[in-house]
Design a protein that fits this description.
The chain is of the alpha/beta class. The chain is built from four helices and five strands. It has a three-stranded parallel beta sheet with strand order 1-2-5. The longest helix is centred in the N-terminal third of the chain and has 12 residues. The chain starts with a strand and ends with a helix.
Amino acid sequence: MTGTTIAVLGGGNGGHMTAADMKLTGHTVRLHEMPAFSPNLEQAFKTNTTQVSGTLTEKFVLDLVNADIQTALALSDYIPIPTHPPSHARSATLLTPP
């Protein structure tokens, strides 16, 4: 699966860890956050980076960090959604074709 494009939906802790893990294993990674929460990721939007800490403490440069779902999903091979349950319905709505 190395070399695939991953669109991670959700910019919380789970999203950052998923994005970092996928980047560490050699994938193209796009991190998407809902527009309502995008101010929380202002620095990530500017630098395309995420920093994780714990067992691994490192900064990762992602291929894209944005709040535009269509851009994040374009030509993506896999779409993990590491969000908390209240966000699942909203994510499903975004992924459902009109």
